[in-house]
Amino acid sequence: MVIILNGTSSSGKSSILEKICDFSDDLYSPFSSDKIVCGSLSHKIDFENSEDFKIIDASYSAFRKSLGVFASHIPYIILDDVIWKSESLHEIIESFKTVDCFFVHVTAPINIIEKREQARTDRKPGTARSQYDFISHLSYDFVVDSSQQTPSEAAQSILQNLKPGNAIKNLAQTMAL
């Protein structure tokens, strides 16, 4: 089973991921795109440089494309990612086409997410807003509002409702993949 936590930057995905790993009886392996990809980039990468950003974008793409290999060997995966454009959605769908997924939207009102984003030193202002509409219009198996639940409450809610979902399969059919 793969749990996919999708939401904008600063929506609360990483905090919920940690709590799911703490509370679940199953041994979920956490995959956080930010930790894995950003942790693997050269310390000389300039996120403002368009040429460097091509490397960053390619690294996220490679990460998403590799997830299917992990899913074929690891029974329980939880992914924290920002699937905010068609290309990244295609990569996720392709990677997880043969496994059961539970696709969760981690959301909150945009004004709250933007306040969180402003409080962080590792986020560029406006990032969450640029991702919000695409992410909000996808179909999900489950939704948690991180402004209404603590990370612990959201994690428990996800685990209580966890079952193989149809959202990723339906999105694949809609996108003719």
> Order of strands in the sheet with the most strands?
2-3-1-4-5
The profile of the biggest β sheet is: 5 strands, parallel
Number of strands: 5
User: What gap, in angstroms, lies between the N and C termini?
Assistant: 21 Å
Q: Strand pairing plus helix content: what structural class? A: alpha/beta
Count of helix runs: 8
In what range is the share of β-strand residues? 5-15%
Q: Which geometry do the CA atoms define?
A: globular
Order of helices and strands: EHEHHEHEHHEHH
Radius of gyration: 16 Å
Low-confidence stretches: none
> Which range best describes the helical content: under 10%, 10-25%, 25-40%, 40-55%, 55-70% or over 70%?
40-55%
Q: Mean of residue pLDDT?
A: 94
Give the SSE map:
Blueprint: E1 2-6, H1 13-23, E2 29-32, H2 33-38, H3 50-71, E3 77-81, H4 86-95, E4 101-107, H5 110-119, H6 127-136, E5 142-145, H7 151-161, H8 167-174
